[in-house]
Design a protein that fits this description.
Blueprint lengths: L4 H12 L7 E5 L2 E9 L4 E10 L4 E5 L1 H4 L9 H5 L1 E2 L3 E4 L4 H22 L3
Antiparallel strand pairs: 1-2, 2-3, 3-4, 4-6, 5-6
Helix pairs in contact: 1-4
Length: 120
């Protein structure tokens, strides 16, 4: 777990950069998440994203890419290769270029949820 702390901190900072008063922060050691308010459209509280240290990697979850798959249009093959499932990206080491792209994707995801959901 210790070897992934730097990766986790950088991914956590990507999420912290998009914090809003409407997003609830939940944080424990090695896990940071942003959760939105209840959505009438989806009939539940919206999970926005999280960074979490796992046994063999650090996961970055970004739920808007599941809700709006077109957000992934045009992402680089390197970032696409980090995807596990529809809204999770796994990392074993920091990569400034990929993290910059992920930060931009996260910012666009927040804007999309704001526009379409009017919640955040």
């Amino acid at each position: 777990m210790e070897m992934f702390e730097q990766v986790y901190e950088q991914l956590r900072e990507i999420l912290k950069a998009v914090e809003t008063p409407r997003l609830k922060v939940q944080e424990t050691k090695g896990a940071y998440s942003l959760n939105g308010p209840y959505s009438e459209k989806w009939k539940k509280d919206l999970f926005f994203g999280a960074a979490q240290i796992k046994k063999n990697y650090v996961s970055f979850y970004l739920m808007p890419v599941y809700m709006y798959p077109d957000l992934l249009d045009g992402i680089s093959p390197k970032l696409k290769a980090r995807m596990q499932g529809k809204s999770c990206f796994n990392f074993k080491k920091a990569d400034p270029a990929i993290f910059a792209e992920l930060a931009e994707l996260t910012r666009r995801a927040l804007e999309r949820v704001r526009k379409d959901e009017g919640l955040l």
